[in-house]
Design a protein that fits this description.
Radius of gyration of chain A: 19 Å
Order of helices and strands of chain B: HEHEHEHEEHEHEHEHEHEHHHEEEE
Shape of chain A: globular
Number of strands of chain A: 2
Strand order of the largest sheet of chain B: 2-1-3-4-5
Oligomer: heterodimer
Strand content of chain B: 15-25%
CATH architecture of chain A: Orthogonal Bundle
CATH class of chain A: Mainly Alpha
Helix content of chain A: over 70%
Shape of chain B: globular
Structural class of chain B: alpha/beta
Number of helices of chain A: 11
Number of domains of chain B: 2
CATH topology of the largest domain in chain B: Rossmann fold
């Protein structure tokens, strides 16, 4: 019986890992291409939740989940154009400071617009409740979330590996100078990558809103975990981030099974171990411009 | 002799003269003017939403008092800030006393921050009205003579809900599974709960500590399902309670869930249809009393939403301080302590008047267990809680739910 319980935690951890993945993948992409650690990434996650809440009010749950990431991705264009663009070649500390500042401003703006009190997002009644398969219990809503994450993941992978767009982006990660020498401007690609990244964060915010509560500091809460996932996975590696997100979810679940109080600490312990034995991250590639 | 050049001496002299002409009278006139009050409450983090209500409540009391002519002919000036965390709370409290010249301190919701402010109050021998933090330890082993506590302590909340459970046949011989917030307040709640279970035949099968930054409870819910308890019980605080009950309803676990702490803002955030079970509260806006209704009407008119229990408690706390200052005609710490310690009765918009117990400085007042209305009965999104009768009952002493002198290690 013990082993079944443990397995249940592993599967549940994988589901949760999928949600981490939505946030971490964008963070990793933006860092890999632009060399900017986007500490404002959590703000887009929070905005995604708030915007989805507003859209749900008028159009219902389904349209909100689809439209909120698109709306926030549009905001990402402005973010890239007026802020990130100035820092690609600058000292990383500058972009850290700017995005950190932006995250705080965004949080306060949310507080001004929507108030400090948490808002309630509810999932459609049809998606609520458990699905019991054999001895396993799943939340119906989270299974749907897992399917959405898998679809998004497949889409992003195809985009990066099977299209001309993806080839330029991947080349831009490894050898931006060579890309420039070939006469390709990386600028529009960067805009697209930022849109994609913050759009995914917004999607995570929208989907997670009915599970928890929507409140101004939700972005600040998630950014640390997302960052840990990116560091464990290794910069620039698509599969590294996927592997790390799932691993973080599973390690947290297993730890809670045995030592509940250490649940949140376990992911930092995991990061510590990975950095100790493999500073580049699990599947991190050697990236010239960061060496 | 001539190392000081003439010009710099002149400058220094002018600066000094300027300071005495502008600076000192400013301080004097400020003293003759408003009575400054330092107010700290969390505006960020898992208790931030409650702090926002706290600010609205104290602000409304300040406006009402000032409109009626202030206190001793002087207006009140409440400076309210985010207490952030225990260390920052202490720094800000010290700064308010040293630099802002506040007469006394008020506020808090977070028990850990309340503790550090209490230490600042004691060190500076200044009065602190600790309004919203509920940990037993604050009025127990950490109590001090400069601090008075308004909100109901964890022991009272546990006893209020526990008695309702005993009445509903959900205590004796039942298996309890508790989830406890891993900080001062949660631990306090858990030890009060354990004491109640032991005394009333409840059987605690597991108690899990939950870090205060947990927002996904799914692994814990799976463990609960495996343990098959009779009752699940929350010793959590702030928006963690909301997250727990939402996810509990998402996973559709069959065991009844109750809790020893839930603020109404967090209940509202969970939304109708997610909350179930029995919970305690110190006050609710549907309380059917004229004074309470007037307050609710005024608050709703002013802010466009009904007051949460933290808005109410801040409101009555500043009113109590105003009553105290009007009667002792002073803002002196020792006189405050003497005034409150003589069990002065205060109207706190409840059926019975409240008073501070002199030996642990805890306000003795009514509390209420509440349950959730049947779906469809709520008039609006704030109306889905159904308030039970006041505890202690009208024929009992207000002190029956509170810790006794034997249970409480407080010595002032």
């Amino acid at each position: 019986m013990q082993i079944v319980f443990l397995l249940e935690q592993v599967v549940n951890g994988l589901v949760l890992g999928g949600y981490y993945l939505l946030i971490a993948l964008g963070l990793s992409l933006i860092f890999s291409v632009g060399g900017v650690v986007n500490l404002a990434h959590g703000a887009f996650y929070a905005l995604g939740a708030y915007v989805s809440l507003e859209i749900t009010r008028y159009l219902g749950f389904g349209p909100a989940m689809a439209l909120s990431p698109i709306a926030v991705a549009m905001l990402g264009i402005l973010f890239e154009k007026y802020f990130l663009r100035r820092f690609y070649d600058a000292d990383p500390i500058l972009s850290l400071l700017v995005t950190f500042g932006l995250a705080m401003i965004a949080e306060q703006l949310i507080r001004i617009v929507w108030g400090a009190a948490p808002l309630s997002a509810t999932m459609p009644a049809a998606l609520k409740g458990p699905v019991i398969i054999g001895d396993f219990l799943f939340s119906r809503y989270r299974l749907l979330l897992l399917a959405v994450v898998a679809a998004v993941l497949l889409g992003v992978w195809l985009l990066l590996h099977k299209t001309a767009f993806g080839r330029v982006v991947r080349a831009g990660i490894q050898k931006p100078d060579m890309v420039a020498a070939l006469g390709i401007r990386l600028q529009p690609y960067m805009t697209a990558v930022v849109m994609l990244g913050v759009g995914m964060a917004a999607m995570a915010g929208g989907f997670f809103a009915p599970i928890t509560i929507v409140h101004p500091a939700m972005g600040a809460e998630i950014i640390t975990v997302a960052f840990v996932v990116v560091v464990i996975g290794g910069l620039g590696s698509f599969w590294g981030v996927v592997l790390a997100a799932l691993l973080v979810g599973v390690v947290r679940g297993i730890t809670i099974h045995f030592v509940p109080a250490a649940g949140e600490a376990s992911i930092y312990a995991l990061m510590f171990l990975v950095l100790l034995f493999r500073p580049r991250g699990l599947l991190g590639e050697r990236i010239e411009k960061f060496e | 002799m001539s190392t000081y050049n003439r010009r710099s001496v002149l400058k220094a002299g002018a600066a000094f003269a300027g300071a005495s002409a502008i600076g000192f009278p400013a301080i004097v006139s400020a003293q003759a003017d408003a009575i400054k009050i330092g107010h700290l409450t969390p505006l960020t983090g898992f208790l931030g939403a409650l702090g926002a209500y706290a600010q609205l409540g104290i602000k409304m009391a300040e406006e009402e008092i000032n409109k009626a002519g202030g206190v001793m002919g002087r207006p009140l000036a409440v400076t309210s800030e985010d207490s952030v965390n225990p260390a920052t709370a202490a720094t800000k409290a010290q700064r308010m006393l040293d630099q802002d010249g506040v007469a006394f301190l008020m506020g808090e919701i977070n028990s850990a921050s309340a503790l550090t402010i209490m230490q600042v109050a004691a060190r500076n021998k200044k009065f602190f009205m600790q309004i919203g933090a509920r940990s037993d330890a604050l009025r127990g082993k950490n109590c001090n003579r400069y601090t008075f506590h308004v909100d109901i302590p964890s022991a009272v909340m546990v006893n209020a809900v526990g008695k309702a459970l005993v009445r509903d046949n959900m205590m004796k011989g039942k298996k309890f599974y508790t989830l406890t917030a891993d900080y001062l307040f949660g631990h306090d709640l858990a030890s009060s709960a354990k004491r109640f279970f032991a005394a009333n035949g409840g059987n605690l099968v597991a108690d899990e500590l939950i870090a205060t930054d947990v927002n996904d409870f799914s692994p814990y819910l799976l463990k609960i399902r495996q343990a098959r308890p009779d009752v699940v019980c929350s010793n959590l605080a702030g928006n963690q309670v909301t997250n727990l009950i939402k996810q509990y309803s998402e996973f559709g676990l069959p065991f009844p869930i109750v809790g020893f702490n839930l603020n109404t803002a967090d209940a509202w955030a969970a939304g109708e249809g997610n909350l179930s079970g029995t919970w305690p509260t110190v006050w609710y806006h549907t309380l059917d009393l004229p004074a309470s209704k007037t307050f609710v009407d005024n608050f709703t008119k002013r802010y466009g939403k009904p007051p949460e229990n933290h808005a109410w408690i801040e409101y009555i706390s500043l009113k109590m301080m105003a009553q105290a200052m009007n009667e002792i005609k002073s803002t002196d710490t020792e006189q405050f302590i003497a005034y409150f310690e003589k069990e002065t009765q205060f109207d706190i918009l409840k059926a019975r008047k409240a008073y501070f117990r002199p030996w642990d400085h805890q306000l003795m007042q009514e509390a209420y267990p509440f349950t959730v209305k049947v779906k469809g009965q709520a008039k609006d999104k704030w109306d889905f809680l159904s308030l039970g009768g006041a505890v202690p009952g009208s024929d009992e002493s207000l002190e029956v739910l509170a810790m006794t002198k034997e249970q409480n290690p407080c010595t002032l």
